[in-house]
Amino acid sequence: MTENGLVTAGRYLHRGEAEIARAHLDAEGIVSVVVADDEGGLNPGFYSEYRVRLAVRAGDRIVAAAVLGPSGAPIPMARQIRDAIVAHARFCAPLEACGLLAFDATATPRMAYCLTNVDASPTRFTLDPNEHFRAIRHAERNGWVIAGAFHSHPASAAQPSPADIAGASASDWLHVVAGPLPDPDVRGFAIGPAGAVEVPLRVT
């Protein structure tokens, strides 16, 4: 749900819970707004049906999800995007697979671009720069923005490695890791100066 460029970062039964979550986001420098439609206080029962929403700017959605953790709203990911990531991981095995993720104006993933790992390594990856550029152009033509990346861990858990953390350049990106094969977990992370924090994903 969007209102004036805002997206839902969490839903809560009580306004106090939403205010506590807002304080957590504020401590991380993320501006948020509590939205509670209770008809000006005349119908607090609306909370039980619609919940109290905590809204953030679309560009802050991924970092907000990492800060709020299980109490926040997970990032929705279409099943076909998850399946594309898994299929690419299996196709590239035993080497690491890699690619980019495009997002729409609500910071929802819309496309997984399966790219070539020019390192051809089972433990590290570098995106092919020409394919990277073409993915950016395709995303722009569709009104999307590249704001995430994915890669596989053929023989290890779906958790960013120290090299993954060191190589991450954008703290507001969604970093998706799939591993281990053949039936990998697919997990999302925000990676910043403090390291990697899991971002809950919800397959739709």
Secondary structure topology:
Layout: E1 2-3, E2 6-12, H1 15-27, E3 32-35, H2 46-50, E4 52-57, H3 61-68, E5 75-77, H4 79-92, E6 98-103, E7 109-115, H5 129-141, E8 145-152, H6 162-167, E9 174-179, E10 185-192, E11 195-199, E12 201-203
Parallel strand pairs: 5-12, 8-9
Antiparallel strand pairs: 1-2, 2-4, 3-4, 6-7, 6-8, 9-10, 10-11
List keywords for this structure.
about 200 residues; alpha+beta; Alpha-Beta Plaits; Cytidine Deaminase, domain 2; six-stranded mixed β-sheet; about 30% helix
H/E element sequence: EEHEHEHEHEEHEHEEEE
CATH class of the largest domain: Alpha Beta
Secondary-structure class? alpha+beta
Query: Strand count, sense and closure of the main sheet?
Result: 6 strands, mixed
Supply the number of helical segments. Answer: 6
CATH architecture of the largest domain: 3-Layer(aba) Sandwich
- Distance from N terminus to C terminus (CA atoms, Å) equals 15 Å
Question: What does this 3D model show about the protein?
Answer:
The chain is α+β, with helices and mostly antiparallel strands and 204 residues long. The protein has six helices and twelve strands. It has helices spanning 15-27, 46-50, 61-68, 79-92, 129-141, 162-167, and strands at 2-3, 6-12, 32-35, 52-57, 75-77, 98-103, 109-115, 145-152, 174-179, 185-192, 195-199, 201-203. The strands form three sheets. It has a six-stranded mixed β-sheet. Strand 10 (185-192) and strand 11 (195-199) form a beta hairpin. The longest helix is centred in the middle third of the chain and has 14 residues, at 79-92. It is globular, with a radius of gyration of 18 Å. The two termini are 15 Å apart.
